[in-house]
Structure formats: structure tokens, C-alpha cells
Amino acid sequence: MEAVTENLGLFGRGYLLSLQLCLWGLAGSLLLGTLVAACRVSPVPPLRAFGTAWVGVVRNCPLTVVLFAFAFGLPEVGVNGSYWWLGIAALVVYTSAFVCEALRSGINAVPAGQAEAARAIGLTFTQSLRSVVLPQAFRSSVPPVGSVLIAMIKNSAVVGAFGVGRDLFSVGNSLTSAQGYAALPVLTGVAVGYLLLTLPAGGALAAVERKVAIAR
Amino acid sequence: MTDTASSAGPAGTTTPARPLVVLEGVNKYFGALHVLQDVDLTVHEGEVVVVIGPSGSGKSTLCRTINRLETIESGRILLDGRPLPEEGKDLARLRAEVGMVFQSFNLFAHMTVLENVMVGPVKARGVDKGAARRTALDLLERVGVTDQRDKYPAQLSGGQQQRVAIARALAMQPKVMLFDEPTSALDPEMINEVLDVMTTLAREGMTMVVVTHEMGFARRAANRVVFMADGRVVESADPETFFTAPRSDRARDFLSKILTH
Predict the structure, then answer these.
(1) What is the ipTM of this complex?
(2) Distant-in-sequence contacts of A123-128, Cβ < 8 A, 24+ apart
């Protein structure tokens, strides 16, 4: 186990970088996913078409392809940025499609009468979505969105493999391939690192779910 | 039809009132089903129109077209002289002037009773929260649910929820109130508390379109009863005339089925 104990600092820094990657991914994909979901349920046909196309394309491409497109494709068409931000952008775009669909299941679970009542008192589409439908949709989509976010934490390892920085996964990678440590103990350390991200995330989600539960 | 509006009804209207809701040649289909067939209806200011008829006759749909919760295929609908806007902000503004009470209450499940009544004025009209709160408390007092103001809808009885829903609609100071079978989802012992609130509203001069099966309410509070069957307005008369001497066979048949017990 000295592979881990000798490199605790490295693991620690990798953990923090992965945490940062995930927090950016979390904020970005929740925001973008909500916008795309709003498009998909909007009464405006072009917006609906955009939302459907977004989900159709992004959800059905492998993450690695999306990452390649962002990291290597975008600079070719003149969009430059650090690997760090391009990597985060790819993670956000990819995850947003799944967040959108999880949210949409939540929106569908809100009884139609709620939106009708909101419209009947004179709220616009955007207002009724923001004040009435989405707050209730968020509550019932906590479990599916939670699963998506936990999958995103694990997907951040793929982003790490693209060399956006020394995140948990690339720390493990360099320890085994460049410094010749045995794979099993290093990977165990990496796995424990990811568990330290995902398990608290699961706990936080359960707490959120309890807090926002509403009676119907 | 216009003469009924100026006759002295429960609302005590004596001057000729202006037409507030006008439906002209309205047609509506659900797929192949022709739910509204050339419907004409005029509701004058201060008038209480009760719409009755067998289920599937299109009376709820009629009610829902007035604030465009249902779109129509042909004909036109005027509210206070203006045609209903198709979509967007104009439609939202118009809906703010038309109160609606649903069969299933549809109170916002994630808001307290007070918040339910405040949200319309605050979000749709930009009324400041203090003023909206005062108005909301007044309205809750009027419908008799002040004690419940900090509870969530699911913690209230059906009758209480429906009274809150009425307060929520009134908070927008609507020109006309639509009631879509407001007591059909209620336990029998709660029906009267809701009907009492509605009767008071009618006596205060609120313009109302009420789809209901409560014939007692129709007799007591309506200026006019509109009988619908198979998507058409079959008969339109003051309650006394309608209940004692209906002209059409359909109406006689309907009344014989519901008034025998």
C-alpha cells in the first residue's frame, strides 16, 4: 500500500481537482439541462425542435467523442480555450442531455392542472414554469437527476484522462505508467477517492430529497 | 337573450348591462368529436349564468374556451369587447382578468394557502408583497379559511381547498369568474360551504359562468340557466321558467332524471 501512502499529497491534490471538475460540471449541467428541458416543453415549436435535437445528438454520442470534439475539434474552427475549460464544457454539454430528460420526467409528473391553474391566474409560460411547474418538477426529479450527477462524477475521470489537469484519475495513471507502481494498490486508492466523491454526493441527495418532499 | 340580463335577478341588476363575454358561432373538435357546435352565448356584466347538461355535452369545454385553456376551431370569443389573443403576454394579461375555479381545485401543492393567493398579484401584476399579503388575508377571511393560511393544500379538506381556490381567483380582481364543476369533487357535507361563498359572490354582483350539477344553486343564484346537450346550447332561460316549464324534450328528459329523488 506504500504506493498510496507515499503519494498521499498527490492523491489529495488529485481529489481536490476532481472535486472542482465535478462542482463546475454540476453547476453547468444543472443550468444547461434546465434550459434544454424548458425548451423541450415550451409551446414554441422551434425551441421544442432545438431541445429534441440537442438531446438526440448529445445523449447518443459517446462521451469520448464529445470530448474529442471539444478538445480538438473546436480549436480547429477557431474556438480556443484551455483544456480545463474545454473539458468542463464537454462534460457539461454531455451531462445536460441526461439532466434534461430526468427533469422532463419530473415535469411530466406535475399534474396538468397545476400548469392550467398557473395560466388561469395570468402567469406567462415562463412564469408558470419558474414559479409553479419547475419547483415541483425538481422535487420529484431529485432521484433521477441524482443518478445522472453521480454518473457525471465518474465520467469526470474520462475528462481527466484527456489531460485537463492532474485529477484523481490522471494521478493514478501517471503513478502506474510513468512511475511504475503496481496497478492494484494505486487503483484502489483512486477508487477510494471517487467513493469519497460519490458517497457524500449520494448522502447530500438523500438529504435534499427529504427536505423538499411535498405532500400531494 | 339580452332581456334576461336587465331583469331583476338575485344580483339586483336594473340598468342594461354591457356584454362582458360573447361567444359567436364557436366550434371545437376533439379529433373527430364535435364538442362545441355553433355555440352562441352572451354573458352581461353582473349576470350569473349557470350551465347545466348531461356529461359529455360540452359544458366544461365551453367554460374552458372562455379563457382559452381550450382553443377553438372556428367562431370568435370576445371578452369585454376584445377578441381573445392567440398566445403570449396578451393572453396572459387577459387570463388575469378571468378568474377560474376548477373541479380538482388545482391549488399549487408546494405553496402555503397564503402564498397560493398571493402569487398571482405578485407575479402577474407586480403588486408588492405587503399589499398582496393584505389583500390575500382579506380574501381568506371572506371565504372563511384564515386559520389555515400557513398550511399546505394537502393538509386542508376539499371544501377548504376549493374556498382557497376561489380566493386565489378573486385576488386578481377578475371581471368574470368561471366555475368548472366546483363542487363535483367534494364530499357531500362540504358542498354547501363552497356554494355559500359562490352565492355571496353572485349577490355582490360578480359576473359568473358556473358549470354545475347543483340545481339548488342554479335556482337560488342564477339569472339565467343555459342547458347544453351534444355540444349545442339547447335552451337558455331564467331558472324559474327553465325548471318549471322547459321547452325542449332534451331538457325535460334531463330534468326528470335528476329531479325525481
Answers:
(1) 0.87
(2) A123/B92, A123/B119, A123/B120, A123/B123, A123/B124, A124/B88, A124/B89, A124/B92, A124/B124, A125/A42, A125/A43, A127/B92, A127/B123, A127/B124
CB-nearest to B92 from A114, A116, A124 is A124
Say how far apart CA A100 and CA A208 lie, in whole Å: 19
Interface test with B, best of A44, A47, A121 (most B CBs within 10 A): A121
Do B27 and B37 touch, CB atoms closer than 8 A? yes
pLDDT in tens, B216-246: 999 999 999 999 999 999 999 999 999 999 9
Q: Strand pairing partners for B101?
A: B179
Q: List residues bridging with B52 in a β-sheet.
A: B227
Distance between CA atoms of residues B188 and B165, nearest Å: 18
Q: Dig out the grid coordinates for B2 from the structure.
A: 339580452
Q: Which residues contact A101 (CB under 8 A, 6 or more apart)?
A: A37, A55, A59
Closest listed residue to residue B179, CA positions, set B43, B39, B15, B17: B43
- Whether residue A216 lies within 8 A of chain B, CB to CB, comes out as yes
- Kind plus residue range of the DSSP H or E element containing B233: strand B232-237
- Give the CA distances from residue B21 to residues A149, B51, B60, B82, in Å, rounded to whole numbers and listed in that order: 51, 14, 16, 9
Predicted pLDDT of residue B48: 96
CA of A150 vs chain B CAs: smallest distance (Å): 27
Tens of pLDDT, residue by residue over A187-206, are: 898 899 999 999 999 999 99
Domain annotation for chain A: domains and CATH numbers = 2-212 (1.10.3720.10)
